[in-house]
Amino acid sequence: MVLALLWMSLTLLGALQSQASGKLHVPKPMHIVLSKIRLQPNFMEDRFQGKWYALAVAENTIRNGSESQFQMYSITFDLNKDHSYSVSTKTQRGQDCQNWDLTFVPSHVRGQFDLGHKKLYPGIQTYTMRVSSTDYNQYALVFLKMKFKNHLFYETTLYGRTKELNTDLKERFIDFVTDIGYDNENIIIHDSIGKD
């Protein structure tokens, strides 16, 4: 159950739940070097904070849209005095609302963060979040890399301040994720979960 706190999206949550049940959801073999993932120039941590909605996701455990039952979720980044983020994720599953909380601490590179309190999560070797692109008002493109029990998991999420995904952002997201190695079968465009 503690491991579920690590996942910032339902696709990664599903992968962990599969592992907990004894069925390892083996990720697509990929090797993405963090330094090859662009960073938002002059990242402004105070403007990035606030509520976002996951509009689209690409991740290396999705096969042929197998995770397409997952819905949009909200995520809130609250900036702390030490420049870390307290992160809360909220999703609706049927009639239940599920919440997860974790902390990301700044790394040596501006716009890149590592999971805080990693010792609380057995099996996690590395867990890094990188803000690749954002205009702070409409969208944010966030890349995650996690090494869990010697398996590499990658996720790229397109967040929006609203639940609306325009065609231009969708196309830019698809171009970005296919350029770094995801296949079309690794991409999900989320359905809305209701009112803001």
TrEMBL record:
It comes from the Eukaryota. Residues 1-22 form the signal peptide. Transmembrane segments: none annotated. It is found in: Secreted. GO terms for cellular component: extracellular space. Keywords: Disulfide bond, Glycoprotein, Secreted, Signal, Transport. InterPro entries: Calycin, LCN2/LCN12, Lipocalin, Lipocln_cytosolic_FA-bd_dom. GO terms for molecular function: small molecule binding. Gene3D superfamilies: 2.40.128.20. The keyword Secreted applies. Residues 49-190 form the Lipocalin/cytosolic fatty-acid binding domain. Its main location: secreted. Belongs to the calycin superfamily. Lipocalin family. This is Neutrophil gelatinase-associated lipocalin-like. It comes from Octodon degus (Degu). The gene is LOC105743592.
